[in-house]
Amino acid sequence: MAKITLLSIDWTLVPDSPKMVVISYRRTTDPDVPASYIIVASGVWVPPSGEFYAPVEIGGLDPAQEYTVKVVSVCGNYSFQQNFVFNDDTADFSFGFSLGFTA
């Protein structure tokens, strides 16, 4: 099994206080509709630095599949999606995220 570890968000505009986000994922081949997403965390606070207080892990993934991870800010409903493809060398990797945000 494989996993994705999310470490941080790269805010477009740095907020002045921690902001809550919802993190979900789907197989990239599945349709981009709400029913395809599996919610990993529905109330994760992210500080202005962008680094999660604790890394968010999405485990139990098939390394032969490509996944799309979606992060949505609760305040303003801004979102960002990132596709992840596992390579043959390793099934585990970490990734910093970008997320558009307006305070």
Describe the protein's architecture and organization.
β5 and β6 form a beta hairpin. The strands form 2 sheets. Strands 3-2-5-6 form a 4-stranded antiparallel beta sheet, with no helix packed on it. Strands 4-1-7 form a 3-stranded mixed beta sheet, with no helix packed on it. The model has no long low-confidence stretch (mean pLDDT 81). The chain contains no helices and 7 strands. It is globular. 0% of the residues lie in helices and 60% in strands. By secondary structure, it is an all-beta fold.
Number of helices, counting only DSSP H or I runs of 4 residues or more: 0
N-to-C SSE string, H for helix and E for strand: EEEEEEE
Question: Average pLDDT, to the nearest integer?
Answer: 81
Weakly predicted, low-confidence segments: none
Strand content: over 45%
Helical fraction equals under 10%
Radius of gyration: 13 Å
